[in-house]
Write a structure and sequence with these properties.
By secondary structure, this protein is of the alpha/beta class. The protein is built from 8 helices and 18 strands. Strands 5, 6, 7, 11, 12, 13, 14, 15 and 16 form a 9-stranded mixed sheet that branches. The chain has a 6-stranded mixed sheet with strand order 9-2-1-10-18-17, covered by helices on one side. It has a 3-stranded antiparallel sheet with strand order 3-8-4. Helix 2 (55-75) packs across helix 5 and helix 2 crosses helix 8 (314-326).
Length: 329
């Protein structure tokens, strides 16, 4: 089968690898260069976690963990740094406890004092922390390279700086669209909303610490987060705080959000310099319920797996999109 993959972010590369390993003829098209900073997959790290309130997502993350280990073995590269996740919640009922328990994943419930004794991290008095050990970071840039190298080794071809304006122009039996925030340019009726998010980096010395996700007491969704950064020590952001944007227009980090992130870091991390050393943007491609869109319409397969939490699932999403591409229609 001749397959085209449009968009060489993490989901497109994972899909290309899955298709190429299944002996299909795969061509990858990327409108910029690999690793560019205009989209959703750049940078050095992304949170990996099993912790979700819904056991469906926990099971999917466990499946993705096995996929990351497979890619590590094939590539000979360590892609995961699993130093745990501390989920900070107002009360245990608003945590991922029930989802983890239903999916038979390990966790501990800790008090604010427990956390302070084990990590240089403050939890508000009276709040609860859920610790999940099978969490930490994915080395984002290394992961993208490993997926691409595997795809190329199995016969795939990559065309960088090649913008596709019409899927009709592609000589392929199946076209997989993993174009992130640009997906509506190619498949107009995909119900997504792109936003430009801001994140910041801070100096922290020493061994990597656990990732932190502070949940909103009302929505149970992630509000603030931090994770290890291999260069500076810490990366932090505010989840879903960005403005809706046109992805073809470039944008800068929001200084008000950088200030809010720095204030949160100063209140949570006791061993971090709270003055940001760098800030950057990242695009989210959001669905109304943060679910993924994995669909086939004729010869077109749509993969919009983001809403700000899709990176960790790349190995399993790539396999699912490849299966859709291979399905008889």
């Amino acid at each position: 089968m001749r397959a085209a993959v449009v968009g060489a972010g993490i989901q497109g590369l994972a899909t290309a690898r899955a298709l190429a390993r299944a002996a299909h003829a795969v061509t990858i098209y990327e409108q910029f260069e690999l690793g560019h900073k205009r989209g959703s997959s750049h940078g050095r790290s992304r949170i990996f976690r099993l912790a979700y309130p819904d056991p469906h997502w926990v099971r999917l993350a466990k499946q993705a963990l096995r996929g990351w280990r497979d890619l590590e073995e094939e590539s000979g590269t360590a892609l995961l740094d699993l130093n745990g996740l501390i989920e900070v919640v107002k009360d245990a009922g608003g945590s991922s406890r029930d989802g983890l328990e239903a999916a038979e994943a390990e966790f501990e419930l800790l008090t604010a004092a427990d956390v302070r004794r084990r990590w240089p991290i403050r939890v508000p008095d009276g709040w609860t922390a859920l610790y999940q050990p099978d969490a930490g970071i994915v080395r984002a840039d290394l992961a993208a390279r490993a997926f691409l190298d595997s795809a190329l080794a199995h016969g795939a071809h990559l065309h960088e700086r090649t913008r596709i304006d019409s899927l009709d122009d592609l000589d392929a039996e199946v076209v997989v669209v993993t174009a992130g925030a640009w997906v509506q340019r190619l498949v107009a009726d995909v119900p997504v909303r792109p936003t430009r998010e801001t994140l910041a980096y801070f100096r922290r010395e020493g061994a990597p610490t656990a990732s932190v996700g502070q949940l909103d007491p009302e929505t149970r969704g992630h509000a603030q987060y931090s994770l290890h950064d291999p260069r500076y020590g810490l990366k932090a952001g505010i989840h879903h705080a960005g403005q809706e944007i046109d992805p073809d227009e470039t944008g800068e980090p929001d200084p008000e959000l950088v200030a809010r992130i720095a204030d949160w870091v100063a209140g949570v991390h006791t061993d971090v310099d709270p003055d940001p050393v760098e800030a950057e943007t990242c695009l989210y491609t959001n669905t109304a319920d943060e679910s993924f869109i994995l669909e086939r319409h004729g010869r077109i397969v749509v993969g919009s797996a983001c809403s700000g939490h899709g990176f960790k699932f790349a190995p399993v999403v790539g396999e699912q999109l490849a299966a859709l591409a291979e399905a008889k229609v």
